[in-house]
Amino acid sequence: MTSTLEEIKLESLLPRVFVREELPYSDIWRKNVVFRRGGRYLVESASGGGKSSLAAFIMGSRNDYEGTLMFDGKDARSLTIKDWQDLRRCHIAYLPQELALFPELSAIDNIRLKADISGDVDLARVDNWLERLGMKDRRDYPAGKLSIGQQQRVALIRSLCQPFDFILLDEPVSHLDEANNRIAAAIVEEEARRQGGAVITFSVGNPLLIENPEKLNL
Fold first, then answer.
1. Which fold has domain 7-217?
2. Cα–Cα distance for residue pair 66/68, rounded to 1 Å
């Protein structure tokens, strides 16, 4: 891959499970869509509309789709394992809806695992994020003993602990109140601006409060 990833392009993309279904109008499925580095996007859908599937396609954990997915003009189906490793380590950050924390590890150790892999994170900045999100006194708690909202804040911070040109956030604030949503949005926006990256949020109905995103309906 090049030093930066400038665009992710979808051409007539559709999950195979939807191929024989009559779908409601979509701004994405069966359309040509380009996500550009530096942009702000909100992908909204009803439950079961395929938002988590789209994130999984972009991350390469699933390829059961029709159509074409391209990274800077290169077909995702042609990428090698090394290419995918490079994309995930240096170009595309991801917060899955399932969070995928290690319950026996502390909040800070879950975050440090990601930071150690990337090798490019200022842990003082991480401590600042924890404090702003009301998690400073929970940094050494096992993740499995945290509330779902607290786990969500830990997972959000962890997702920011790498270089990225795009960050995919699947239901990042579904268990947060509005005050913590706004703090989370400010942290994401600050880090995306620092890195020049795009923010793509996937949500059923409680989106991250990023200002003026381009809205796309699945």
1. Rossmann fold (3.40.50)
2. 7
